[in-house]
Amino acid sequence: MILYPAIDILDGSAVRLVKGDFDAKKVYDEDPLAAARGWVQAGAEYLHVVDLDGAKSGAPVNLGHLRRIAGELGVPVQYGGGLRSAQAVGDALAAGAARVILGTAAFAQTGLLEQVLGEHGEERVLVSVDVRGGHVTTAGWTETTEITTEAVIDSLAERGASNLVFTNVDRDGMLEGPDLEEVRRVARAVRGSLIYSGGIGQLADLEGLAGLGEMSVQGVVVGKALYEHRFTVPEALAALGS
To answer: Active-site residue 154, yes or no?
Structure first.
């Protein structure tokens, strides 16, 4: 299972939020590149970069930081936040993203997901399924819909999107661990691959995800636990069997 250290960028700094609340942020590094370099030097082979400014504004804001991170560190970077047009997706890939993550646009922009999949291929396009209280949330986690997780996953699969990032927003930044039964249920609904995000707080959480034995669960995003030194990158990799 792949470890994806998270670099969430807001106002030019690497931050972490609590439950997606932009008013509950903590700055961990004023230079996102420095934060990313630290994880790579510690052994991380992949990175997860989120443009929180872009998620709020609806268009990428931090492509310059993406360009620096992808250009200088030599590891694959998946990038999301504000990618709500084919042009924005193309710009992110041109800036160095190995894969892009579509969120709100995959649900709200008619035909965009299909267009992006057709232009770039499903291996370079992930869809973010962000859930609060069992229902999908959009617009940078500021709006919760009435759509259930399973219904969204089925709909996305029918549209050609089989590689997902699943985030339990209620657990994000709380360090209280994933709901393993929820992850198992979601994993079995996915027809492709699943990257889990939300609430990882200790090595046992990573071991629990790996121990599910669900082949579709191919990665996990870890942010606050790494920044708060709950465990190291090498320890995380060992727990995941990487």
So the answer is: no
Choosing from 8, 51, 53, 205, which is the catalytic residue? 8
* Catalytic residue list contains 8: yes
Residue 137 has pLDDT above 80, yes or no: no
| Cβ(42)–Cβ(116) below 8 Å | no
Task: Kindly report which listed range (65-79, 158-172, 207-221) carries the lowest average pLDDT score.
Answer: 158-172
> Is domain 2-240 given the CATH code 3.20.20.70 in the classification?
yes
Strand segments (E) across the chain = 2-10, 13-18, 21-29, 47-51, 77-80, 99-102, 125-132, 135-138, 143-148, 163-168, 193-197, 217-222
Catalytic residue among 51, 53, 130, 172: 130
Domain ranges of the chain: 2-240
